[in-house]
Design brief:
single chain; 4 domains; eight-stranded antiparallel sheet
Length: 583
């Protein structure tokens, strides 16, 4: 008979039962949070970013994981803000307003329509303010360029202005208008159209509110002065149409360019009279202008009929040719080859936007100085006629003309001393380009004795604004008694009503008539241009300038004193002036 030992087995059984109860209790504690039902998380915004703004910021997140969440809860600095999500865009954004200028950590949670919440996310960001703005650098003007294709204002680089996204530029043009242009981040310069020399120019930079910022903020305006360009507008009162045989005179349909092409008014009234209007079917064509000065032509401004009214006759391609004289300058055909063969230089060729713009201007690269230019039209909108309402020209290193002495003549008015004493022959020798004293009184002007003060009248052959006079007299080492010490030059546009009294009289080589008074000159309409002191006792020649004065075709040399104060002699005369207007 077997005897069972039960006690050990009872102990083992008790231990197993105890362990089972203990393990079940642990499992219950682990899953306790799920015993009341499954936890459901709401969809979330993905890849959160904060974009800085001016005392505000913008939260952005992708919506592909959003599900049916319809609210976003943002917590920061003890504040909670809730926003509705009402769009189906790929990126959701919302603005956090009234922030301080500082950095933040934003806790972002979304909530769906059932009240379920997403797992919270934390994203860092900041808002900018006035301190940030004060630390930003403007893009500043560093200089100007005068290139063949235009005038430019140059800016510094963006290395010290990384948040500047664009800069506005306001500048004065020649019409006293304010023109606005914009330099963007990648631009180092912008073109200035018809800038006004020494006019105003101002810049204002606009910055972004930090990297990837949401706000555009203007910085303070900076004021500058435009530079004085190396060229200036030529005085239109010196211009005249030359009327060469190959020129299209532009007087179709009663157009009158002689009066109105250079009158300073380029507006279009619809009346062809106030324009240059070429003959129909004459394309290409040209006309020639005497500028009345020697200059390096740098810019041309063309004004045409308003395109919205009539653009058919507006130019679309033009040339500018130049020459310093007209000797052998006529062309037998209207071709480039004919122009080159006649000694013309091509200064400019280019397109003109006459189809949409009434005013067009272009710069010309510096070349040789010219007095005459030809404006040549290669094509127009309608390609039948061409029309201009105004032409404005600009030159560099502009100087006066040395007047053609072959046009000079003695006017021999009744009160004039003709200068023929001692065989003097001024009509043949006073402007023969020989300034040397030969020992013979015939080669020049000789007043005779008892002639101080006296005068003679010279017809220049053209109307001009005198600028310079160069005269030659006897070598003082030979004899200086007849050399001038004080000389006046008077001017008048015509001789009508210009006579003065008394009439000149002489016997032999001596003057017997009384001199003409200053009052008589003034009463007869003569205008004093210059009163020049001369050291005739030591000099044989002198060159002096005229102050700006009237246009004169006739001038009077009035010698009021000489070294010996009895007679006056002159060997050679040379005159320069602006404009050479013929009748």
């Amino acid at each position: 008979m077997k005897i069972f030992k039960t006690k050990p087995y009872l102990l083992l059984f008790s231990s197993v039962i105890s362990m089972m109860f203990l393990q079940c209790g642990d499992i219950e504690s682990v899953h306790e949070q799920y015993l009341n039902g499954e936890i459901i998380y709401a969809g979330k915004l993905d890849t959160l970013t904060i974009r800085p703004g001016y005392y505000r910021a913008q939260l952005e997140g992708y919506t592909q994981l959003l599900g049916n969440s319809n609210q976003v809860i943002i917590e920061f600095n003890g504040t909670t803000q809730t926003f509705d999500i009402i769009n189906d865009d790929e990126i959701y954004s919302t603005i956090l307003s009234d922030l301080e200028e500082e950095s933040y950590e934003f806790k972002v949670t979304t909530q769906d329509i059932y009240g379920n919440l997403s797992i919270p996310q934390v994203v860092a960001g900041f808002a900018i303010g006035d301190e940030f703005i004060l630390n930003q650098d403007q893009r500043q003007i560093i200089g100007y360029s005068f290139d063949s294709d235009g005038n430019y204002v140059n800016f510094n680089s963006n290395t010290e202005s990384e948040y500047v996204i664009f800069t506005t530029v306001d500048y004065e043009n020649e019409a006293n208008e304010i023109i606005r242009d914009t330099a963007f981040f990648e631009d180092n310069r912008i073109k200035l159209i018809d800038l006004k020399p020494l006019g105003s120019i101002s810049t204002k930079s606009f910055i972004q509110s930090g990297l990837n910022g949401i706000d555009t903020i203007p910085l303070a305006t900076i004021d500058y002065t435009l530079p004085d360009v190396p060229y200036s507008e030529l005085d239109k009162s010196y211009f005249q149409m030359v009327h060469m045989s190959s020129d299209n005179l532009g007087n179709y349909n009663n157009a009158n360019p002689e009066l109105y092409l250079f009158d300073g008014d380029g507006s279009w009234s619809g009346d062809d009279t106030f324009s240059y209007f070429s003959n129909p079917g004459d394309i290409p064509h040209h006309f020639t202008i005497d500028l009345g000065v020697m200059t390096t032509l740098r810019k041309v401004k063309l004004e045409m009929p308003t395109p919205s009214i009539s653009a058919q006759n507006n130019a679309t391609e033009v040339q500018i040719w130049g020459r310093n004289n007209l000797e052998f300058a006529e062309t037998t055909s209207n071709t480039n080859t004919a122009f080159y063969d006649a000694g013309w230089s091509l200064l400019y060729e280019g397109a003109v936007n006459g189809e949409t713009m009434a005013n067009n201007s272009f710069l010309i690269s510096p070349a040789n100085q010219v007095r005459y230019i030809r404006y040549r039209v290669l094509s127009t909108v309608g390609n039948t006629n061409s029309q201009l309402t105004e032409m404005t020209l600009y030159g560099q290193d502009t100087g006066p003309l040395v007047h053609d002495k072959s046009l000079f003549s003695m006017s021999l008015m009744p009160s004039d001393n003709p200068g023929t004493s001692y065989g003097g022959n001024p009509s043949n020798y006073l402007w023969d380009n020989n300034s040397l004293w030969s020992g013979n009184d015939a080669y020049g002007y000789h007043s005779g004795e008892n002639a101080i003060p006296g005068h003679f009248t010279l017809d220049l052959g053209v109307s001009t604004q005198l600028s310079k006079c160069k005269i030659y007299f006897r070598d003082p080492n030979n004899f200086s008694g007849n050399n001038p010490t004080q000389l006046e030059i008077w001017g008048r546009p015509t001789l009508q009503g210009g006579e003065t009294l008394p009439v000149f009289q002489s016997i032999g080589n001596s003057v017997i008539s009384d001199p003409v008074s200053t009052e008589s000159f003034e009463n007869a309409g003569w205008q004093l241009i210059v009163d020049q002191s001369i050291n005739g006792g030591e000099l044989q020649t002198i060159e002096f300038d005229f102050p700006p004065g009237p246009f004169s075709k006739y001038i009077r040399f009035r010698y009021t004193s000489t070294v010996g104060n009895s007679a006056f002699q002159l060997i050679e005369v040379e005159l320069s002036g602006y404009g050479a207007i013929t009748d």
